[in-house]
Amino acid sequence: MKTPGEQKDRTWILAAPGVGYLTVLYALPLGLLLLASFRLPEAFSISAYVDFFGDPFNWYIIWNTLRSALLTTAFCLLIGYPAAFALAWSKGWLQALFLVSLILPLSVGIVVKAFAWTIVLRSDGVLNQALMALGFTDEPVRLIFTETGLIFGAVNVFVPFMIMPVYSVIRLLDPRLAEAARTLGAGPLYVFWKIILPLTVPGIIAGIAFVFSLALAMYVIPTLLVGERFMTLSQQIARSYLYLRNETLGSTVAVVLLVFSLIVIVASQWLAGKVRANT
Fold first, then answer.
1. Which residues constitute the domain of residue 263?
2. Comparing C-alpha atoms, which of 244, 212, 245, 239 is closest to residue 227?
């Protein structure tokens, strides 16, 4: 009979297919991408990074990318946090309706949704018609090809990725905690601020990490809703490869974007660890 230690040593066999898949299709291409960012026709050099960070326009692109990702994440949190409670606290057919309305749009391609938003945001679109009908404006507001339109479209696409992590945490909350606090004289705001909110922080961190990472790397949405008037790092990558035919520049921008994504992942893991240690 084999000992538990011998059985444990063979668990790597189960992980081998997944590790091999990720190595070949993820780690290896990333390694080649990193190598290409240092490769010049004559030798290996960091000059591509020096040139990239030495150009003020590239700092403008970085700021555009970070700002749009931050705004998208903030609005997704404002919309998604209360929506997650509504989803968790609803019952029966109403909860099923909420789940379907949340998950069904994920089956629609992002290109289709982005094109739909170009119709909604144009001067004779539904949003402008509603604003004029309600008396908020006398003439159409320019929304298409603006940062505002970009945020509208991005929030619509990414808000489910904020709702689901928060919803999964809320479902695990013991309702007796809030009842016990109210029995001891705690008001609704105190119960939320001292009990509910701290317990849902892991879901908030996960949702922020999901949405910010996705918004940081979005390409289709800014391309269709804004175009090159509002350049982001992902658009600069595509422009470098497809139009400029500059592999070194494209790989350099891609590595910069990858570093930002890794920072988000590491920071979210660190925060989640701190939260677990304090609860």
1. 46-278
2. 239
* Cβ contact 109:121 at 8 Å: no
* Contacts of residue 32, Cβ cutoff 8 Å, sequence gap at least 6: none
Distance of alpha carbon 107 from its chain centroid, rounded?
Answer: 17
Residues 22 and 87 in one domain: no
CA 24, CA 2: separation in Å to the nearest integer? 33
* Single-letter residue type at 130: A
226: Cα separation from own chain's centroid = 19
Number of domains in the chain: 2
Residue appearing with tokens 């800014």: 222
In the predicted model, residues of the chain with pLDDT beneath 70 are 1-9, 279
Instruction: Give the CATH number, domain containing residue 51.
Output: 1.10.3720.10
| Tens-digit pLDDT profile for residues 144-193 | 888 999 999 999 999 999 999 999 999 988 888 888 888 878 888 888 88
Can you say whether the dihedral through the CA atoms of 32, 36, 39, 44 is positive or negative?
A: negative
Which residues is 44 bridged to in the sheet? 39
